[in-house]
Amino acid sequence: MQIISIRKLIASILTFTICLTSFNSTVAFAATNVTNQEMNQSLLSLKKSNYNYLEGKPGDTHLVYTYESNNDTYKVIENADDNFEKVNTTIYVENTEGVFVKYATQTLTINNFTSTLTTNENGYVTTEQQDLLPAKKSQNNNFISSALAAGSYQGYKLTNWKQISTTNYSTRITNYSATAVFAVIAYIAADGATDGLSGAVVAAISAVAGKIIDEAIPIVYYRQIYSEKKLVNPPLSLRNFVVGSKWLTYFYSDKAHSQFIRSVTDIVYANGYEE
Fold first, then answer.
1. At how many degrees (to 10) do helices 199-214 and 178-189 cross?
2. What are the C-alpha distances in Å from 113 to residues 102, 110, 170, 199?
3. Domain map of the chain by residue range?
4. Are 235 and 216 in contact, with CB atoms under 8 Å apart?
């Protein structure tokens, strides 16, 4: 009887172990599925093609266009403020009946050389934040401080451009809309604002943004050379006055800087000064 009891006990333990193993396998598989589902790639990050601009063009504060991605057709309506420091985007996807239904919204804000992109994709909200060339922040602040301190034209001759620094950086723009791409490129290359820029500078920024959009470049790499002009033989109080700042930015589609996109030159002078 004791032997039978022991055998029954062993059988019970084996049965329990098999059940427990099966249960654990099922739980692990379910957990894996959940993890994979959470890590699924956003549809907005997939490659886009066949852009068709219905209203406006990249660089306009109001833009409506369609594109194709993952065998679907999307329609996008975008509105930006005058400085492209805020971009509101609504994205629609065409259903089987040929009707565009709301799929996602995006809000891009750029403040103090930091971009924040908030996406609500079919109810799933994500936020990504990144610096846009941190070195330029201090350069820009130095120029503004000098300009405010010295005021308008002082009557002194200017030095030639003197190169101060060279910075290499990159920005991920996988999920960015067309207007958001333009806004980021403008902020990097054009002193953080597009109002008051010459047509040539705006055209150069649009060309860079257009190539990034058309070729679905996920990360843009760039090298920025910063130069300054000062006064020739000024009094001690104006010796450090930065008369002009120049940012020459080379954009590339690869980390090795072998795939050149285009350069953009932005020049800013203190009040009363010019070339």
1. 130
2. 31, 6, 13, 23
3. 1-40, 43-130, 133-269
4. no
Of residues 3, 10, 112, 94, the one with CA closest to residue 52: 94
Looking at residue 40, what DSSP letter applies? P
- Beta carbons of 66 and 51 less than 8 angstroms apart: yes
In a structure prediction context, what are the per-residue pLDDT tens digits for the chain, which is 275 residues long?
Answer: 444 443 333 344 334 343 444 434 333 322 222 223 333 568 888 889 999 999 998 889 999 999 999 999 999 999 999 889 999 999 999 999 999 999 999 999 998 888 999 999 989 999 999 888 755 555 555 555 555 445 555 677 888 999 999 989 999 988 899 999 999 999 888 765 556 677 788 889 999 999 999 888 999 999 999 999 888 888 887 788 888 888 899 999 999 999 999 999 988 887 777 66
Domain 43-130: top CATH class? mainly beta
Q: Which of 261, 265, 262 is nearest to 275 (CA)?
A: 265
Q: What is the spatial distance between Cα 273 and Cα 158, in angstroms, rounded to a whole number?
A: 9
Q: Give the number of other CB atoms < 10 A from CB of residue 176.
A: 28
* CB 170, CB 255: distance < 8 Å: yes
Strands (E), the chain: 49-55, 62-69, 72-80, 86-94, 100-111, 114-121, 124-131, 162-172, 219-229, 244-252, 260-269
Contact criterion met (CB below 8 Å) for 209 and 59: yes
| Amino acid of residue 96 | T
Q: Contact 83/59 with Cβ under 8 angstroms? A: no
Number of neighbouring beta carbons within 10 Å of residue 244: 20
